[in-house]
Amino acid sequence: MSALSELGSLRKQKGQASRSPLEKNDGKYAMFFLGPWLIGLVLITAGPLLASLYLSFTDYDLLSDPEVIGVENYRAMLEDPRLLTSLRVTFTYVFVSVPLQLIAALGLALLLDRGMRGLALYRSVFYLPSLLGGSVAIAILWRQIFGTSGLVNQFLGLFGVDGPGWVSHPDYALDTLIILNVWTFGAPMIIFLAGLRQIPEMYYEAAAIDGATKLRQFWSITIPMLTPIIFFNLVLQFIGAFQSFTPAFVVSGGTGGPADSTLFYTLYLYQQGFTNLDMGYASAMAWLLLAIIAVLTALNFFLSKYWVFYND
Amino acid sequence: MRTTLRTTDRPRRRLITMATVLTAGSLALAGCGQADNLAENSGEEPAAEGGDCEQAELRYAWWGSDVRHQLNQEVIDAFEAENPDITITPDFTDWAGYWDKLATGVAGGDTPDILMQEERYLRDYAERGVIANLDDYDIATDAIDENILAAGQTDGALYGIPTGVNVYSVLANPAVFEQAGVPMPDDTTWSWDDFQETAIAIGQTDGLFGMQDHGYNEPGFMVFARQNGEQLYTEDGELGYQDETLVEWWEIALNLQRNGGQPSASETVEIQSLGPEQSLLGTNRGAMGAWWTNQLTAIETAAGTELELLRWPGESQGERTGMYFKPAMYISMSADTECPDAAAAFIDFMVNSETAGELLLSDRGLPANTDVRAAIADDLSPSEKKAADFIADLEDEIIDGTPVPPIGAGEVAAILDRYNNEVLFERMTPQDAAEQFRSEVEAAIG
Fold it and tell me: Domain range spanning residue A219?
């Protein structure tokens, strides 16, 4: 309190024209504390980012010096059938798994929001897959569960169904990865939970007095009030799913197989860069991915005007 | 009440929008940062001339199992004891990580002084001037079989010294044959038809398969092509086989798959991802499989029974024999090393000294140096001995080695595996797959 009033009197003494020495120093301190982060940004993110932009215009095999070839890499992408395959796989993965994941997250959040005994425990348990989902161990576990003689087929066997090897069949392999992503609904669930807490109770009370059913309340109060949160989750999960790499890498042993059915874009990029030693092409691919994500995110923001409700 | 809602909700809106934008942006940036975290290519130093380093400090990079790390360390210790002025630092990873790490290291101007190479990458590194021509250094190669040594040469210069010899062969489990009531074939005379009949006959027994799929791997196809007087790669680094040959190769596997001689396509994919120990042979579910001679020990251990090494079918019917000695791996030297003479001395020690031979035994295939191979014959385990005898028996039948694969050959294994899957899942006919395989491989090695 005294410090504040001192500051106030100092300000008055100096008048409005010149800023106090303390304020002048604010900039310096800000730079001092931001420094480590800025250095990291420049060296670890921006540097390689610009380098990859340059490399995307070169023929670079990692072993000899890059050679500038203009837009050749970008042109070659137009004629690359595997690039198309990888885009198809990635888009399927993103557009199927993200909505399903958000529905699962919202459903669980609604259940947990009602308040019950051991709620904290449930919340942690449901959040757990999110911590583990991207890990190598879970990807290996997934390979076991969905294998020919894995848990899933053992269960199906009880009903006389002879299931295929899910992860090793080109028609189903991607589905198992989609299920893996849906299963990691913990992070959006936590955010949904926080969002649900923000909705004022009085809306529900008013609706109840007017005779609205629970379902009606859900559609007319919960969902509209939650749209900003849904939007936030959608954008985040969308971008995350586009960049998904580990599950496909581990489950397919780095091949994107069987028969390219799990060839995620990032996995193909990795293969081009490190297996095929074509880092120029891989860099160009990275920029295409950035462009795709940027355009789709912009579209997402644009569309949000029509369905996100900010209550003001 | 309304007013309070408004005032609290406005910042909330801005906050959420801000948070969304910021998080989205930083996620996208971070993602790209990870994907493109490349080392910039630093200007390569020209190769150091001469090499009189009084105190040489060298780095030696290899891939492999824990057993190999242990063995290599013992070799390094033995060498350092004899050469007190040379220090060798080990640098090792697993197979897949090795090539990523090596390529990135080279890009950063940090090539290991001494490094392990493999035939599919040798030319990549040789023609781009990363590894040195070993003819220029004092390393004895006269005790190494000519055919094998030739596999380390490209354009007449020696870029890698083969450490050991492997043969791609058919491993068979006599116990499974017996269980199925099928006689073991005579591998000196059997044809591809005999092979298919045998495998399918074994598959008639519940729970047993005749063969693990062999269509996915280039070495097997190389044998097959050579039997037809063709080859996968020519000396000039081009494709040297007819599409019909590849079609025929895949049709054998399809025939087995359709008639129970080998597992279903998705089981095949699954088994192949698991490695030698979990293979059909390793788990006593299959009678035969295509493996390298140096994998015999691991698979015998896993199966807990004695296995036999067989020649590929068709060796006596084709235009010529197709089997070949393959250098298990090569030792190469960086073209940039500051102490080439010291590095050469270490390579010479690994290849030619009995001390190193006794330590390494057949870890890198049977020693390529025939004197060392003879000297360690008594130290080999029974299964290593079996492989050694098998290789000795083939000495007269094998005509020549295979040329060093062209630049880009590292991609071909994955391409062949992919089209093999397309064929096994019957999503493509062998004809279409063979055509597309050719065009994709030509693009990769072109």
Answer: 79-307
